[in-house]
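Q: What does the assembly look like in three dimensions?
Context provided by user:
Components: two
Sequences:
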Amino acid sequence: MRLFFAAFSVAILAALAVPLEAHHSFSAVYDGNKPVTLRGKVSKLGWSNPHAHIYVDVVNQKGETVTWEVESASATNLLRAGIRKEDFIGTEVVVKGFLAKDGTPTVNASSFTLVELKKEYTSDEAAPGAP
Amino acid sequence: MKPMAIVAGVCLALALQAPAGAQARPDFSGTWRFNQAKSSANIAGNTPIVAFPSQLVVKQTATELQVDGTSVRQQPTSAVFKLDGSKVSVKAPAGITESGEARIEGANLVITTRRSFTSPLGETIVDFKEVWTLSGNALTIEKTRTESGDSATEKAVFDKM
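A: Here is the predicted structure of the complete assembly.
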């Protein structure tokens, strides 16, 4: 019985650990002084909570295609805004956001526009207090 | 007697014009704190399209304007602008180069800056234009961010502390 409770506790902790790891502080990961705008095609989608992850192929100034990871609002919030999982793949997207501090092609999206569908999503994540 | 009256009239008009002109020059000095309730939606929190500081400390003289901005989610920036509109460097966080200029236009202050940094896109250049307007103890800043031909404008209101 003791072994069962130990296994149960480990399972609960493991289940909680995933969302905790995924929901991080903005300032720890992103640079609020480095706004960027991306244009490209969506190649992959991570449709999840607390953040959906949109993977966008963007051509850089050297002419190379780089896949960017765009952290967006939760899948639940996107659905509430009328944006579905099916809207993304292969579509052209314009993303405004902030660059990751580690220099990788990663941004936190303030807004994105699905060009062909003419659908725009603006994050309404307004933390109390200050910008 | 008539020319004398005309000369006196012109002198009186000039004398009255000088103080009127001096009064029109706004003074933005003070400590200003962001007022979320009076500002555009979506500019507070983690993901503003156009980012504003939480607090501004402004010191204005006849020739210069020192602006120190602090924020919860951005590193502080500081600049001493010449009010004749000449270009100056903005003290920005490591890895960012920024320069800009400021000038008084009537009742407004207009600040334009250009920020550049390296990203996986290459050399990234972001232009900002801020139009400052005073109204009593409130400072309104309309700020436009332009990058890669794409621009967005938001408005923030700051209360004098």
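Follow-up: Chain A touches chain B at residues 26-27, 30, 32-39, 58, 60-62, 66, 68, 94, 96-99, 103-105, 108-111, 122-131 (CB under 8 Å).
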